[in-house]
Amino acid sequence: MQLNLTIDIDENAGFCFGVKRAIDLAEQILDEGKELYCLGEIVHNREEVDRLHKKGMISITHEQLPDIKEKNVLIRSHGEPPKTYALLEDNNNNRIEATCPIVLKLHQKVSTAGTNHEFVLIFGKKTHPEVIGIIGQLSADYFVFERIEELELSKLPKQLTIFSQTTMDLDAFRRACNYLIQSGFELNVQDTVCRRISGKKEKLAAFAERHDVVIMVAGSNSSNGKVLHEICLSVNPRSYKLTRVEEIQSDWFHPGETVGITGATSTPDWQMKKIAAFLSGL
Ligand code: F3S
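# FE3-S4 cluster complex -> structure
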């Protein structure tokens, strides 16, 4: 049976400027025929990473980094702690700096926190590479949390400074700040949520609402993809998150319905187009 779906790709979806900048830089170096190592996944999207691997890029882990000497090594948009920079220098590597300028600004702010014996809270995911980079800049005592329930208020000092991982949800960050203020803490709020993505929230909700079915194209390890998918689900329960066409199930759709395809900040345009082409053929 022909489904005759109407497919619409979200014009606000796709790479944020920091990720696009890192990928453009990598491609520029590869197109010049140079060898390029990338520390960690350049973007949380397996297929895009594979595409760059085919062009010659080599991804390395932090465990492999000590063995990399005299190479071009790209620092992805998430940024790195100072110890990574020191290691690159010790091994005479050529650092290709693709840390997002917004993350670099956050690093600068964080590195000065603690000079007044502040205690720093980071609203983010403990294991996220950006948070690892942020922690590396800190000289103050700190605690990283993702949910209010993780905070043990009795163990925290009265005066706190709070930062956020750039890709966290702005409303959730505000809720955490209000909770701390209402609990009697003197809070120095450093709102470091990236507006390149938080501003997309309302537009995305409207996009998800006006389609029968929504497909969020995002890697399973993309924090931003998870946040954006939750926004879609809040207005449209028929929202599905996936990376590959093979994950699509035809019983998600009914004949003549509209399907909105959107993506995370780590989703390349070509991947959304591939899903659109597949759905058009159903
Ligand atoms: Fe930069 Fe914001 Fe993207 S911090 S990497 S532009 S989500």
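# post-check
The first helix runs from residue 17 to 31.
The two ends are 8 Å apart (CA to CA).
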